[in-house]
Amino acid sequence: MRNVVILGSTGSIGSQAVEVIRENRDKFNIVGIAIGGANPKAAIEQAQEFGLSADQIAVRNIEGAKEVSRALGGYVITGENSAAALVESQEADVVLNALVGASGLPATMAALRSDATLALANKESLVAGGRIVLDAAKPGQIVPVDSEHSAMAQCMRGTRRSEIARLVLTASGGPFRGWEREGLMEVTTEEAVVHPTWSMGTMNTINSSTLVNKGLELIEAAMLFDMDPDKIDVTIHPQSVIHSLVTFTDGATLAQASPPSMKLPIAHALDWPNRVPDVQEPLDFSQAFSWEFEPLDNEVFPAVCLAREVAKKGDPYPAIYNAANEAAVEAFFAGRIKFPEIVDIIGEVLDEADEFAAVPSDVFDVMRVESRTRERVAAAIARIER
Question: Which residue intervals define the domain 1-deoxy-D-xylulose 5-phosphate reductoisomerase N-terminal in the entry (predicted)?
C-alpha cells in the first residue's frame, strides 16, 4: 500500500489520479490533497470520499480555503506555499505534483527533501528549477507522468545509457496543424483551448496549440535523461497513440503505444516500476487503423527550436522560456496580443536575456529571474500595443 499526496487533485491529471486510486484501493491510499481554490466543492467531495481531515488538505486561495474548512469542520493549510507545506506535513510514499506552472517549484523541492517518490506532472517546476531540482533529487526519485517521458522511461528500462542514440518526442500537432501564420493571427482563445486528441487543463492545451508544450517537454527530456538536446527529435503524430520513441546505437527504435489517455502514465508513476493491471483498455489490433508521422513545421511553429537552444544554454534560460510563455499566454487571454505573438514574445525576451540572466542558486533566485522575465514581457506587449 502506497500513501499518496496529490497536488492539483481537482485538475485534469489530479482527477484522473483520483480515479486510478479509487479503482485500486488495495494499492494506494490518499493522505493529502492540494488545490488552487477554483473548485473547492470537488476537493470537499474527494476529502469525504477518502476520509481526509482538514489538516490533510491545502487550498491556496483564501476564499476556497474558507469553504473547504467550513465543510470539514477544521482548518485547512492555506497560502502561497500551502502545497509545499502539505507535503512537509505528511508521510507520503508518492507525491504527485500536478500543479500548473512554475509556481509548483516549492512543492517539487519539498517532495525531493522527503523520501517520497516525486511523480512529476508539473514539468514547469523542473524546467524552471533546472540544476537546483536535479541536484536535490536522489537517484530514481523523480518519475515522469507526462505520457511522452513515461514512454521513454518505459522504452529505456533494462538498457544501458551508452546504448541510447536518440530520443523522439511525438506531438499531435495541436488544433492548428497545417495552418499558415496568417491564419493563426485570427485564432481566438476558444479555438486555442480545444485539443484534437487529448483532454487537458487550459494551460497545457494552449501550450500544445503553440507547440510550447513540446518545447518544454524537450527541455524536460534533456534534464531527466541527461541527453544532448540536439539528440532529441520531435515528430508530428496526429493519432497520439505512439507516445514517444527511443532509438538505440544499433539502429533499433522502440516505441510505447497505447490509446490517448493519461491514466496509464499516471498509474505507472504512482506504482513505479510496477504496472497496475487493467488501468485502461489496450489497443485492439483486430481492427484496421493507421498511424501517421510528419515533420514539424518549424517556421510556423518555432517554439521547439527556441526550446532546443534554451536547453543547450542551460540555467536560467529554461526558466526564462517558461516564465515568458506564462506571461504571454496571460496577455493572449486578456486580448492584448495575437496567438502567434505568444512565441514571438518568448523569442524576443530570450534575445535580451543575456542582460539579466544569472544562474540561480536557490528557489528565490529562480523567482527573481521569473520576475525580470515578466517585466521584459510587459515591455514587449507595450510595444505591440503601440
Answer: 4-130
Q: Is 147 annotated as a binding residue?
A: yes
**C-alpha to C-alpha distance for 291 and 235, rounded to whole angstroms:** 12
Q: Which residues of 69-90 are buried (b: 16+ CB within 10 A; e: fewer)?
A: bebbeeebbbeebbbbbbbebb
- Judge residue 234's burial from the number of C-beta atoms within 10 Å of its C-beta, 0-12 exposed, 13-18 middle, 19 or more buried: buried
- Answer yes or no: is 294 a known binding residue: no
**Is 148 labelled a binding residue?**
yes
The annotation status of 217 as a binding-site residue, yes or no, is: yes
Find out whether 352 is annotated in a ligand binding site. Answer: no
The CA angle 140-13-11, to the nearest 5 degrees, is 135
CB-based contact 340:181 (threshold 8 Å): yes
Element (H, E) at 77: strand 77-78
| Residue 208, marked binder | yes
79 assigned binding-site residue? no
Half-sphere exposure of 290 (CA within 13 A, CB side): 2
Flag whether 247 is marked binding.
no
Does the model's pTM come out above 0.85?
yes
Compute the distance between CA of residue 42 and CA of residue 54 in angstroms, rounded to an integer. 14
243 annotated ligand-binding residue: no
Q: Is 164 annotated as a binding residue?
A: no
Q: 138-187: per-residue pLDDT in tens? A: 999 999 999 999 999 999 998 999 999 999 999 999 899 999 999 999 99
Task: State the pLDDT confidence band at 194, using cuts at 50, 70 and 90.
Answer: confident
Q: Cell 514539468, residue?
A: 123
Is 214 annotated in a binding site? The answer is: yes
Query: What are the cell numbers at 213?
Result: 508544450
The answer to whether the annotation marks 242 as part of a ligand binding site is no
Does 36 belong to an annotated binding site? Answer: yes
Number of CB atoms found within 10 A of residue 383's CB: 9
Set of cell numbers at residue 19: 480515479
| Cα–Cα distance measured from residue 238 to residue 260, given in angstroms and rounded to the nearest whole number | 11
Residues whose CB is less than 8 angstroms from the CB of residue 315 and which lie 6 or more positions away in sequence, other chains included: 130, 131, 359, 360
12 is in an annotated binding site: yes
